[in-house]
Here is the input.
Amino acid sequence: MNDIRSLRVDGDRLWASLMAMAEIGATPGGGSNRLALTYLDRDARDLLGGWCREAGAEVSVDGIGNMFARRAGTDASLPPVMAGSHLDTQPMGGRFDGVLGVLAALEVLRTLQDAGVATRHPVELVNWTNEEGARFAPAMIGSGAFAGLQDARLAMGLKDTEGLRFGDELDKIGYRGPDAIGGRPVHAYFELHIEQGPILEDEGLDIGVVTHAQGVRWLDVTLIGAAGHTGTTPMDRRRDALVAAAAMIEAVAEVGRRNEPGVATVGQLRIEPGSRNVIPGRAAFSVDLRHPVAATLAAMTEELKAAIQESAKAAGVEAKITDVLYFAPTAFDKSCVGAVRTAAESCGYRHRDIVSGGGHDACNIARIAPAAMVFCPCIDGVSHTEAENIRPEWATAGANVLLHAILAKAGVSG
Ligand SMILES: [Zn+2]
Here is the structure.
């Protein structure tokens, strides 16, 4: 190798692997349907495992089905630099969400093997089990268990909508491995993922250097007013739960607008009794608040709770607010983020810093090891549907950045 900085992945080979993987569970509209722990997930895992062995890596599986493919380093005492994502998809999902991160890590292993590069730290590909949470909720179970955030024994008892147990399904596809789940050091973790938003494509950029991932707060709000006859109840005697909800929904959007880059959404609304000529006596809605800074997310939550109680009082209804979920924001490791930025620059790619709007396995791993993410654009920001698409050159750019971020952390010997 004359100069390691000039090393590049084989973009055509990466694209061919992405297309071959997409055939497992291919949908009529050009997407992939590969739910976690189905036989299709098994086929995808088998294909990946074979490719990893051909690339000279040693494949292992832990007790929750996370797959690892390790390429040895020159110093066996050093912990690995890991890179990966997930091969499971949404029911009518895309070909790239998760898959790109796993197969780009494979392309890194292949590139290192072809060029005969020796790294000091081992380089380890990982395919996390059940990232999507589409079949077994919650999401990100495999990486959560690896990071000690998810109880693996509890996970084994989770049931899908047909009542099939996670543990039984894991056994059925033959991927309950002998390795302990987590509890081992990771030198650094990198995850390449499609942005799943429109920013990079809109700005004509190749690479997003992910500095943070948003925190998430979910609330349920239930309003209790009074049902009554729409024709006989004068306006000043009403306790209309839906009129109260309308003001609150506007308050939710306002909290989002006032706290950029925060976002705030009401995604579900139920009215009772739901009759044309009955005043709504009850209303219930969901709230989804997101912000990359924990203190701001907390302030948004408090601001909104106060606004809801105020609107409730004005409308003469009772408001009950329940906390449903909290996922803390992630600040990715500065040194790993720096390695991603430097890699993008040294490869000559146009890049910007960006915040991840969604949750990823990297958010779990960031709790136990230095971690960072690389984003590449996706067309129209579309994801979690069959229409999800990227350009081959974006995949290549992402994989090259992944390669050089990994090399920076793994160290090149000799
Ligand atoms: Zn994903």
